[in-house]
Amino acid sequence: MTPPDGPPGPAPRQHPCRTADVLNIVGDKWSLLVVRNLSQGPRRFTELKRATTGISQRMLTVTLRSLERDGILTRTVHNVMPPHVSYELTPMGTTLREATAPLLEWSTRNLDGIESARAAYDTRADTAQPTPS
Questions:
Q1: Residue 70 · residue 25 · CB < 8 Å
Q2: How far apart are CA 39 and CA 59, in angstroms?
Q3: Residue 15 to residue 46: CA distance in whole angstroms
Q4: Which of 21, 28, 57, 78 is deepest in the core (most CB within 10 A)?
Q5: Which segment of 21-30, 44-53, 55-64 scores lowest on mean pLDDT?
């Protein structure tokens, strides 16, 4: 049986849980920092580790594998001795960088204010008296 000729119907709606998978990339603690560090071009593992303050070698490996699996970056093994591996954003990774750049800039601009608000909150929470049951 062939489909009738005529205008196509509305596009099928994406299941909201599928977008959560994508948002996990953005919400991951390290992924956006790695993407930002790759925005200037290909980097080797050691360069990424040095540029991503606080990340462990294992966590960087896990993050890079995840980003590669999601199509955000490519991993290239250069056939030299000793072999060297570089990572580079894919076109999709570049668009992720462009989309999240304002968030990272906002973070940088507001970091001092966030730290002040946290300190004030923690001080209030520490001095609050427990309520009787």
A1: yes
A2: 20
A3: 39
A4: 28
A5: 21-30
